[in-house]
Amino acid sequence: MFLAEQKYLICFDMDRVLVDHLSTWQFVYDKLGINNDESFALYNQGKLDEWDWIKLDLGLIKGARNPPATDSELRELMEDMPLMKNWKHAISNILEQNTHIAIISGGLQHTARYIAAQFPSEKKWKKRWGGIDPNTAREQCEGHDSVFHVFTNGWLIEPNENTHDAIGDFGRYQVQMNGKGSIVQMLQRRLGISKENTASVGDSSGDIGMFEQSEVSICFNPWNDEPIAVASHTIHECDLMLVYEHIKSRFNWD
Length: 254
Description:
Layout lengths: L7 E5 L11 H9 L4 H8 L5 H14 L7 H7 L9 H9 L3 E10 H9 L2 E5 L9 H7 L3 E3 L1 E7 L17 E2 L6 H12 L6 E5 L5 H5 L3 E5 L5 H5 L2 E3 L4 H11 L4
Helix pairs in contact: 2-3, 5-11
């Protein structure tokens, strides 16, 4: 399942890091002409937990159209998602350095899977922890797995009498707002990679848990000052090649 010879683990947040947009959720809201101000306010007031927040937002998305948008329609809305400058070049360079790469994000799964699918492995797809879904493998990777490990939130498909790709009422909830550090720790244990050989890249306080489990922690395109105080390095310019260059220098890659 995993390549034992790989020595490093590089973990990325997605929204405002790999994606050049406020959030993948917001991108879909804008396309549908809706907003989640009410549920966002309830969450900030402590009246919603994250799981209920996702369910409310999925209800908002489903209610934006009649009949409700399907999985294929939502994926089509996201086709022009803007990605960060030099994202593919930076990741390609990182992968040449004996690394595992993970996306750990509360953002929507479709964009994370698209990014992961640009880097297929030599192995045929099979279900695994942190893997892409079989549809992405079939449609974008010629039936192969991705070298990425992907952990995101979003929607789930629940077929009904009208369509095979209806959006369910209960969403995909893999990443807690303040639980990213636990995912990094689990990856380190499963992959046999130490904290000293781990780097993480994020933009907000939700990424502090990743930073705390990483020798190299980069606050990229900072949302506010809170993660800057915890990160070992900060990059304000929105160019992911700067992330690669910093990680390269810290790990003494040739």
